[in-house]
Write a structure and sequence with these properties.
The complex is a heterodimer of chains A (about 260) and B (about 575). Chain A contains eleven helices and five strands; from the N terminus they run αααααααααβββββαα. By secondary structure, chain A is of the alpha+beta class. Chain A has three domains: about 120 residues, Orthogonal Bundle (Cytochrome Bc1 Complex, Chain D, domain 2), CATH 1.10.760.10; about 60 residues; about 45 residues. The radius of gyration of chain A is 27 Å and the shape is elongated. Chain B has about 575 residues and is mainly beta. In chain B, strand 33 and strand 34 form a beta hairpin. The chains are: A alpha+beta (about 260), B mainly beta (about 575). At the A-B interface, helix 1, helix 4, helix 6, helix 9 and helix 10 of A face strand 4, strand 29, strand 30 and strand 35 of B.
Chain lengths: ~260, ~575
C-alpha cells in the first residue's frame, strides 16, 4: 500500500519550486493537483477491512477491479465527498448489473468504505505520495571496481564517503551519488581584474551579461561578463562527465557498493 | 495575404466575406474582423500564435537590428492576484491577443483587458473555481465581439470583449475526474476548438468544437479509438483504451487552404507504467490532422509510440512552405518534448525528418515511418533507468518559432539527465505509476535547419535553472526570448549573436508578441506577474509616427472607442 510517505524524494518538478515551507510533500502534491481534502485515515483503515470482507471478491483487493469494475476510476467514487453517493449504491446494490444489496451496512460503515476508496484514489492520483520499491539490485563488487576506476580521484570510501550507506536511504543515495548538487560544496571562482588584482570567492550568479561573486572575506562583487577574466571551478563537473558514461548496470552496481559503506 | 488564399478557401469564405464587405457598415460593428484571422499579424494579434501557422513570425520591422539599442520599456502592468492554491505566485504564461488597441491576456481564473498603448486596465474578469489544477493558462480566443476562456475546473466561458461581462458558460471537462483546462481556444470560422488536460487519474483525452454563439457541441474527436474502430488494435483491451489519457492541452494550428486542423496529443495513461497498456496506444503522443468542420481524422504521425516517460507531444505543430529535397513542400515541423525534431508533409503526414535535438536514449532507433522505436530497457524501472534527457523532456509548452527568412526553427530546449522510476508494478497500475527525477539539466536555445534537423547554432545559457520562454521572430532581423536568469534577449536569428537584453527580473514566462498601434511597434513580454511593453524611444521614431494619428474612421474604430471609454470592474 502506498500510504503517506514523508521521506520520499521523488521529484515533482513544478510544485517543488512554489511550496509553502511547512506543508508535507504529500500535502503539497494534493493541493498542487487540486485533489479533494485528505481522507479520514482512521475511517479509511476501518473501511479497508470492510472492503476486503464484502467488496474485494468482485472489485479486487485493491479496488482496481476484478469481475466488478475498477472503483478507483469510478465516476461515482470521484464525485462522492463523504459517502453520499457511494453509500446508496452499496446499500441498494445494482441489481441490473449483478451487484447485490448490502442492506445491513450501517451509515458509519458506509462512510468508512467511502473513505477507504477516497484514500485509494489519492494514493493513485497524488504522485507525491508514491514510494520507491527496492532499488538496491546491483553487484557491489562490480560497483566497487567502477568506483575505484572513476571516483577515487575526488572521493574516498574511508574518507569523505565513510558511512554514507548509513546516512542516507538508498532511494536518496542513488540520485545523490549521480548528481549531488544538494550536497555539493559551493562553486568557487577566481577573478583577475584588469589591474592584475586576483579575487577568490564563491560564484553567486552568472548570465550572458554579468557575473557576481562573494569573496572569501564575505564581500559581494559584480562585473560585466567581459570586463574581467574569471575561472569557475565547478565541483560537479566530474559528475556531469560520468552521467554520460554510466550504463544502468554501472549505476545499480555503484549504489549496491555505496550502501555497504555503513 | 489574400493572394495566397486558394480558390477553395475563397469559395468557403465567400459568403462570409461578402457579409463583411457589403454589409459591414450596416451591421453592428464587430471588434475583431474575421478577415484578420487569415492575415499576417501586424496591427492585430488575433490568436494565441498570432496567426494560424504557429510560426510566431512578425513581418514588422520598425524595431530592427539597427535600432534595437533604442528599445525601451513603454509601460508595465502587474497583476495583483497573490499566491494561488497549490502553485504559489502564478506566472503570465498566456500570449495576449491584441485587437483594436486592446490586449487580452490571462492567468488561471483571471482575464484582463488593458490598453495596448498604455497598459491601463480596461476590465478584469475573475472566475471563482471549484477545484481544478492551477498550473497555467495560455490565453483567450476571439470571435467578433466575444472572448473564450477556459477555467481550471473545466468551464468554457464566453465574455463580452467590450466589458468582460460573462455571456454564458458550458462545462466541457469534469474536474472531479481530474481533468483541467488551460488552453487558449482556437477560432476557425464558426468553430471554437477546445482541448483538455489532466493525467492524474487515467481519463481519456478529447478535442471539441463548440458553437461560438451558444457553446453547443459541434463535434468531439476522441484521442482513443473505441473498440472495433481503426487504432483499437494498438490497445490490449477496452478498459485500457477508455482510460488511456492523451490530452489536448495546447492550441494547434490550421491550414486554411487544406482546411486541416493540426493538433498534438499528450502522453498515454497510466503515465510511467505501461504494463497495462501494451501496444502503441494510438492516438496518444501523436500529431493528428483533423477536418475542422467534422472532427474526422485525416492522418496521424505518432511521435512516441507507447510512451512511458510523460512526453506529451502537444508542442506547437508549426506550418510553413519551402523547398525540401529540391521540391516545394507544405510542411509541418515540431520540436517534440521527446527530444526529436520532426518535419512532416502536412498534406498527408508523411515523415521527412526525424532528428534528435537533445539526448533521446529512450528510443533505440527510428522506424521506416519516421516514428521513433522506444527502448524497453529505458522504460521506467523499479530501481531506475538513466535517461539522457531531463524528466520533462526536451521542451514543453512554451512556443517555438520558425523564421522563413533564415529557414530555421527555434526552440528553447532543456538538456540533461534524469532517472525514470516505476513505482506501481501491479498488472493494473493507476495514475502516474512512477516518476521522473531530475539529476542535472540546463537550458539551451537551438536554431534547427528544417531540412536536416541539424542545429545551425546553439546558445547554452550559463545561468542555472530552466528558461520556459517562448520565442518571437520578426522581419526586423530579430529574435526575442528569455534566459533562465531573468533577461529578455534579442538575437540575430541567423547567427545567434546577442544584440540586446533587458533584465526583466524573472524569466520570460510567455510567448513574446508584437503589433503596431498608432504607427508605433510594440513588443509585449510576460515575465512572472508582470506584462512589459517595449517600443523604440520616441526620438528614434520617424517624425510621422511620433504624432498620434487620429483613429481611423470606420466601424472597428467606433466599436473600440466605445469599449475603451467604458471602464467597468467586472469582477
Amino acid at each position: 500500500m502506498r500510504l503517506l510517505f514523508f521521506g520520499a524524494i521523488l521529484s515533482l518538478a513544478l510544485a517543488a519550486q512554489t511550496q509553502a515551507p511547512k506543508q508535507s510533500r504529500v500535502e503539497r502534491g494534493r493541493e498542487f493537483l487540486g485533489l479533494p481534502p485528505p481522507p479520514d485515515q482512521a475511517a479509511a483503515e476501518r473501511g479497508a477491512k470492510l472492503f476486503a470482507q464484502n467488496c474485494a471478491f468482485c472489485h479486487g483487493q485493491k479496488a482496481t477491479g476484478a469481475e466488478g469494475p475498477n472503483l478507483i476510476r469510478s465516476s461515482v467514487v470521484l464525485h462522492d465527498e463523504k459517502g453520499e453517493l457511494i453509500g446508496p449504491v452499496v446499500l441498494n446494490g445494482r441489481p441490473d448489473k449483478g451487484m447485490p444489496a448490502f442492506s445491513s451496512m450501517t451509515p458509519a460503515q458506509l462512510y468508512d468504505i467511502a473513505e477507504f476508496l477516497h484514500a485509494r484514489v489519492q494514493d493513485a492520483a497524488n504522485r507525491s505520495s508514491y514510494k520507491l520499491q527496492n532499488i538496491v539490485t546491483g553487484d557491489s563488487k562490480a560497483g566497487e571496481a567502477f568506483f575505484n576506476a572513476h571516483c577515487t580521484k575526488c572521493h574516498s570510501a574511508t574518507g569523505d564517503l565513510a558511512h554514507v550507506g548509513s546516512k542516507y536511504e538508498p532511494s536518496e543515495l542513488q540520485a545523490l551519488f549521480l548528481y549531488p548538487d544538494k550536497a555539493a560544496p559551493p562553486v568557487t571562482m577566481t577573478v583577475t581584474l584588469p589591474n592584475g588584482q586576483v579575487i577568490k570567492g564563491t560564484l553567486k550568479r552568472h548570465d550572458d551579461f554579468n557575473i557576481s561573486m562573494v569573496d572569501n572575506s564575505g564581500t559581494f562583487h559584480s562585473w560585466p561578463d567581459d570586463a574581467v577574466q574569471y575561472k569557475i571551478e565547478d565541483p560537479l563537473a566530474g559528475h556531469r562527465e560520468l552521467l554520460a558514461i554510466y550504463t544502468d548496470a554501472d549505476m545499480h552496481n555503484v549504489l549496491a557498493y555505496l550502501v555497504t559503506l555503513k | 495575404m489574400k493572394t495566397r488564399l486558394g480558390s477553395g478557401l475563397l469559395a468557403r469564405h465567400a459568403g462570409f466575406l461578402a457579409g463583411v464587405f457589403l454589409f459591414g457598415s450596416l451591421l453592428p460593428a464587430q471588434i475583431l474582423n474575421p478577415a484578420k484571422l487569415l492575415a499576417p499579424p501586424t496591427d492585430t494579434w488575433p490568436t494565441y500564435n498570432g496567426d494560424y501557422s504557429g510560426r510566431r513570425f512578425s513581418t514588422l520591422k520598425q524595431i530592427n537590428s539597427h535600432n534595437i539599442d533604442s528599445l525601451a520599456v513603454s509601460w508595465m502592468y502587474r497583476i495583483n492576484v497573490g499566491a494561488m492554491r497549490g502553485v504559489g505566485q502564478v506566472e503570465i504564461k498566456s500570449t495576449p491577443l491584441q485587437v483594436n488597441g486592446v490586449l487580452y491576456f490571462t492567468v488561471p481564473d483571471n482575464v484582463w483587458a488593458v490598453d495596448a498603448r498604455t497598459g491601463e486596465e480596461i476590465w478584469h474578469y475573475n472566475w471563482v473555481d471549484h477545484g481544478g489544477h492551477l498550473l497555467g493558462n495560455r490565453g483567450v480566443g476571439m470571435y467578433g465581439n466575444w472572448l473564450y476562456f477556459l477555467s481550471p475546473d473545466g468551464w468554457f466561458i464566453s465574455l463580452d470583449a467590450k466589458d468582460g461581462k460573462e455571456r454564458w458558460k458550458v462545462h466541457v471537462a469534469d474536474a472531479k475526474l481530474q481533468y483541467f483546462t488551460t488552453m487558449a481556444p482556437l477560432v476557425i470560422r464558426n468553430h471554437v476548438i477546445v482541448g483538455v488536460g489532466g493525467d492524474a487519474m487515467d481519463v481519456p483525452g478529447y478535442l471539441e468544437s463548440r458553437d461560438p454563439e451558444t457553446g453547443a457541441l459541434q463535434w468531439r474527436w476522441n484521442t482513443e479509438p473505441r473498440p472495433g474502430e481503426p487504432g483499437a488494435e494498438t490497445w490490449p483491451d477496452k478498459g485500457a483504451m477508455e482510460h488511456g489519457g492523451g490530452m489536448t492541452w495546447l492550441p494547434g494550428t490550421y491550414d486554411p487552404e487544406l482546411n486541416l486542423l493540426f493538433w498534438g496529443t499528450g502522453n498515454p495513461n497510466p503515465v510511467y507504467a505501461g504494463q497495462g497498456r501494451k501496444g502503441s496506444n494510438l492516438w496518444t503522443c501523436s500529431i493528428v490532422a483533423l477536418n475542422p468542420d467534422t472532427g474526422k481524422l485525416v492522418w496521424y504521425f505518432q511521435a512516441s509510440p507507447h510512451d512511458t516517460h510523460d512526453l506529451d507531444d502537444v508542442e506547437t505543430p508549426v506550418l510553413f512552405d519551402g523547398e525540401f529535397d529540391g521540391k516545394p513542400r507544405k510542411m509541418l515541423a515540431q520540436a517534440a518534448r521527446n527530444g526529436f525534431f520532426f518535419v512532416l508533409d502536412r498534406t498527408n503526414g508523411k515523415n521527412l525528418v526525424s532528428k534528435p535535438y537533445i539526448g533521446t536514449n529512450w528510443a533505440e532507433g527510428i522506424a521506416p515511418s519516421g516514428e521513433p522505436i522506444p527502448n524497453p530497457k529505458k522504460d521506467p524501472q523499479p530501481d531506475g533507468a538513466l535517461l539522457n534527457m531531463p524528466p520533462g523532456g526536451g521542451t514543453n509548452w512554451f512556443p517555438p518559432s520558425f523564421n522563413p527568412e533564415t529557414g530555421l526553427f527555434y526552440v528553447n530546449a532543456h538538456e540533461g539527465y534524469s532517472l525514470a522510476y516505476l513505482t506501481d508494478t501491479d498488472e493494473k497500475p493507476q495514475g502516474y505509476g512512477g516518476s521522473g527525477e531530475n539529476l542535472f539539466s540546463h537550458s539551451v536555445l537551438k536554431a534547427l535547419d528544417y531540412r536536416t534537423g541539424e542545429a545551425r547554432w546553439t546558445h547554452a545559457f550559463p545561468g542555472k535553472g530552466w528558461a520556459q520562454s517562448g520565442i518571437l521572430n520578426t522581419a526586423g532581423k530579430l529574435m526575442f526570448s528569455g534566459d533562465p536568469s531573468g533577461n529578455l534577449i534579442a538575437w540575430d536569428p541567423a547567427s545567434g549573436r546577442i544584440l540586446w537584453h533587458f533584465h526583466v527580473g524573472s524569466s520570460v514566462s510567455n510567448g513574446p508578441m508584437t503589433y503596431t498601434l498608432g504607427g508605433r511597434q510594440y513588443l509585449i513580454v510576460g515575465a512572472g506577474d508582470t506584462l512589459y511593453a517595449f517600443a523604440l524611444a520616441g526620438s528614434t521614431l520617424p517624425p510621422s509616427s511620433r504624432t498620434q494619428p487620429p483613429a481611423t474612421a470606420g466601424s472597428e474604430a467606433g466599436a473600440l472607442a466605445g469599449s475603451r471609454a467604458e471602464k467597468s470592474a467586472a469582477q
